[in-house]
């Protein structure tokens, strides 16, 4: 894979075009809001677990339990870094107290760790070299930070419900894939099982990105950006400017497994995650702040993501 800006732009552009397609489908009502939830439920419970089973089960990258543990810890710590930087810097953008600072810190601190980086890992490293498997393991740590420390930031109190939410179909699929890998059972599965999982996996990523675009389309209202430009500025500077420097420094200097270095480098280029908007509203946070963070970082990342990925490829792409 070429490390030039245009080469990397050619990889990232189809991902953003899928997001744009989702926005169009929502705005044109070809895919109405009431259809999003059942479709996403199918993806999360069927297609995404199939993708994990196909990527993690047969790869030797996860055979070392220490690598698995370090990958989970890295996902957890990178999110804590995002929360901390956003919380400390929030007063610089007139978010000093209350729910606005909480929503800003939570939403800016969570990068898009799911559907956006998956096709990029596919494009740069393929499915079978172990990087995709490490991405899924790494994301367990992200989920853990999301539902524990993240909810603590939003509510100001610890909530054990977060631990229960970590137990979800993707995590169950990951545990099953690791068991199949460690036990050697995966190698004995007939070809038709692998083919079936591959068919399901091929649906997961594009459909997930399209539905994410649909959700963003629902957030793009006329009033969304009539105010709150301090939030937009702060989110873009931190999520797309400062935090990538920390992520790439960690990927370059820390003695991490090569596959994990690649994952951290790609995550460095990601905008804010989408799902925190929903969670912010659920826990009574400033959803208007969350919307501005998510939409603004996504739009700006069309330019910044290829730039940061170019840096990432030069740092760790050939390791």
From TrEMBL:
<keyword id="KW-1003">Cell membrane</keyword>
<keyword id="KW-0813">Transport</keyword>
<dbReference type="GO" id="GO:0055085">
    <property type="term" value="P:transmembrane transport"/>
</dbReference>
<feature type="transmembrane region" description="Helical">
    <location>
        <begin position="290"/>
        <end position="309"/>
    </location>
</feature>
<keyword id="KW-0812">Transmembrane</keyword>
<comment type="similarity">
    <text>Belongs to the auxin efflux carrier (TC 2.A.69) family.</text>
</comment>
<feature type="transmembrane region" description="Helical">
    <location>
        <begin position="6"/>
        <end position="26"/>
    </location>
</feature>
<dbReference type="Pfam" id="PF03547">
    <property type="entry name" value="Mem_trans"/>
</dbReference>
<feature type="transmembrane region" description="Helical">
    <location>
        <begin position="199"/>
        <end position="220"/>
    </location>
</feature>
<keyword id="KW-0472">Membrane</keyword>
<keyword id="KW-1133">Transmembrane helix</keyword>
<feature type="transmembrane region" description="Helical">
    <location>
        <begin position="38"/>
        <end position="56"/>
    </location>
</feature>
<protein>
    <submittedName>
        <fullName>AEC family transporter</fullName>
    </submittedName>
</protein>
<feature type="transmembrane region" description="Helical">
    <location>
        <begin position="232"/>
        <end position="253"/>
    </location>
</feature>
<feature type="transmembrane region" description="Helical">
    <location>
        <begin position="166"/>
        <end position="187"/>
    </location>
</feature>
<feature type="transmembrane region" description="Helical">
    <location>
        <begin position="265"/>
        <end position="283"/>
    </location>
</feature>
<dbReference type="InterPro" id="IPR004776">
    <property type="entry name" value="Mem_transp_PIN-like"/>
</dbReference>
<dbReference type="GO" id="GO:0005886">
    <property type="term" value="C:plasma membrane"/>
</dbReference>
<feature type="transmembrane region" description="Helical">
    <location>
        <begin position="68"/>
        <end position="89"/>
    </location>
</feature>
<feature type="transmembrane region" description="Helical">
    <location>
        <begin position="110"/>
        <end position="126"/>
    </location>
</feature>
<dbReference type="InterPro" id="IPR038770">
    <property type="entry name" value="Na+/solute_symporter_sf"/>
</dbReference>
<feature type="transmembrane region" description="Helical">
    <location>
        <begin position="132"/>
        <end position="154"/>
    </location>
</feature>
